[in-house]
């Protein structure tokens, strides 16, 4: 089981590295394919567009495919997308390759989260999912700086080639260590889409878009804030971003146990603390030490939101959690685009480089309002549980627990364990 979670974390590490390394190599890429740096920035948008499109589409296409086989197919597509990026001769094909590389992103995280939650006892599901997410946060500490250095020293193509190698390692790890998890007879795109119609799923996705948009409103402009306001040199910003990644890792480690214990309160606390931290950063950004401390804290509380949102969506989608879990990452990429756009509007309006912090705080508060709305609407409903097995072919035939939306664990050792209330 630990090796299976490690294999999923390696997948997340590769995804995190390829997603953010492009930002640090834009000058080299622009020079290599003969375009301006702002034009090369569209490659970031191409990847994000791939995530938004690929999460629901690929999850729907693979709705009847056993989870392990689907993970292997998606990982193979991830490798192909990054190899195509390394070999692309011009900007047009590179744009297409980045879109291709982004397609499996959301589906890999969605399917991986469902698989991780089913590897452990129900009361430890969020901790298992957060261990997979650790790969993404560690990528910000190790993978992105290493990819940036590799690209700067040997050429940007080698950065994408390196990510493809990580993808191959992940593919082999998944094949060796992740157990087979069969789909039930009900599995299919129609079943998944009906689960997406749940209003709690819709509110959860909206919370992710708006609330996490506050995080990205600041993260997108963190480097110019540090250089223009804090006085940190360009050469030191990579180390600061790594510090941001340390905060994200600490937050992810805490988020799992807290979410297992109290899902909605953890989500509320994360959004409240994010809003408070962004307001604080508006003032501390002008001093080096306070700014670095605040940055670390923002990274931590930002990650405190990710796991509870993921688990909430999986719980409310009941026995069809895969598309909801995957769509969460489409929501995060929409948050990335929307938060960056609103933060840029504030800067363009002449409000100063620190203004995205106030925009981000406002978005976090709006996300908190959506989260509270979902909680209020959910009062008096049956307890929410994350489905940990998809083996039952007929809910009524499988027994009363399954008929109520809770699958019976497939391992006999868990037969006496009740799923933990997450709602």
Produce the secondary structure layout.
Blueprint: H1 2-24, H2 26-33, H3 37-40, H4 42-61, H5 67-87, H6 91-117, H7 125-154, H8 156-177, H9 189-196, H10 199-219, H11 222-230, H12 237-261, H13 263-284, H14 288-316, H15 321-348, H16 355-377, H17 400-403
Helix pairs in contact: 1-4, 1-6, 1-7, 1-8, 4-6, 4-15, 5-6, 5-8, 6-7, 6-15, 7-8, 7-12, 9-15, 10-13, 10-14, 10-15, 10-16, 12-13, 12-14, 13-14, 13-16, 14-15, 15-16
Molecular structure report:
The protein is built from 17 helices and no strands. It has 423 residues and is mainly alpha-helical. α4 packs across α6 and α10 packs parallel to α13.
What structural keywords apply?
423 residues, mainly alpha
CATH architecture level-2 label: Up-down Bundle
How far is the first residue's CA from the last residue's CA?
Answer: 26 Å
H/E series, N to C?
Answer: HHHHHHHHHHHHHHHHH
By CATH, the topology is Growth Hormone, Chain: A
Per CATH, the superfamily is MFS general substrate transporter like domains
Number of domains: 1
The portion of residues forming beta strands comes to: under 5%
Task: Report the structural category.
Answer: mainly alpha
Q: Total number of helical segments?
A: 17
Give a quick account of the main beta sheet: strands, pairing sense, barrel closure.
none
Helix amount, in percent?
over 70%
The unreliable regions are: 384-423
CATH level 1 name = Mainly Alpha
Q: How much is the average pLDDT?
A: 82
Query: Nearest-angstrom radius of gyration?
Result: 21 Å
- Global shape: globular
């Amino acid at each position: 089981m630990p090796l299976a979670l490690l294999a999923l974390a390696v997948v997340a590490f590769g995804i995190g590295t390829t997603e953010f390394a492009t930002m640090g190599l834009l000058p080299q890429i622009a020079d290599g394919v003969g375009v301006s740096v702002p034009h090369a920035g569209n490659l970031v948008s191409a990847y994000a567009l791939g995530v938004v499109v690929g999460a629901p589409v690929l999850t729907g296409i693979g709705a009847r495919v056993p989870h392990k086989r689907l993970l292997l197919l998606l990982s193979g597509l991830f490798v192909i997308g990054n190899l195509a990026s390394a070999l692309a001769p011009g900007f047009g094909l590179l744009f297409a390759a980045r879109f291709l590389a982004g397609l499996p992103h959301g589906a890999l995280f969605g399917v991986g989260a469902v698989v991780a939650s089913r590897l452990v006892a129900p009361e430890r599901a969020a901790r298992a999912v957060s261990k997979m997410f650790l790969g993404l946060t560690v990528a910000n500490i190790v993978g992105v700086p290493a990819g940036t250095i590799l690209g700067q020293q040997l050429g940007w193509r080698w950065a994408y080639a390196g990510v493809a190698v990580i993808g191959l390692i992940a593919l082999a790890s998944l094949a060796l260590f992740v157990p087979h998890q069969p789909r039930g007879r009900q599995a299919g795109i129609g079943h998944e889409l009906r689960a997406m119609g749940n209003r709690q799923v819709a509110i959860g996705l909206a919370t992710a878009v708006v609330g996490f948009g506050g995080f990205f409103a600041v993260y997108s402009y963190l480097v110019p804030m540090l250089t223009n306001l804090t006085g940190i040199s360009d050469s030191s910003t990579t180390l600061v971003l790594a510090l941001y990644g340390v905060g994200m890792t600490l937050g992810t480690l805490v988020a799992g146990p807290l979410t297992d214990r109290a899902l909605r309160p953890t989500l509320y606390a994360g959004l409240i603390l994010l809003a408070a931290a962004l307001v604080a950063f508006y003032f501390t950004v002008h001093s080096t030490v306070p700014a670095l401390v605040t940055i670390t804290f923002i990274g931590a509380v930002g990650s405190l939101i990710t796991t509870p949102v993921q688990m909430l969506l999986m719980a409310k989608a009941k026995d069809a959690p895969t598309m909801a879990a995957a769509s969460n990452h489409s929501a995060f990429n929409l948050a990335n685009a929307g938060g960056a756009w609103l933060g840029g509007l504030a800067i363009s309006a002449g409000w100063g480089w620190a203004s995205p912090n106030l925009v981000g705080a406002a978005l976090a508060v709006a996300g908190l309002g959506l989260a509270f709305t979902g909680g209020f609407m959910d009062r008096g409903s049956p307890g929410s549980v994350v489905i940990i097995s998809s083996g039952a072919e007929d809910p009524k035939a499988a027994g009363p627990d399954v008929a109520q939306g809770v699958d019976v664990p497939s391992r006999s050792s868990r037969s006496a364990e009740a799923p933990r209330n997450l709602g």
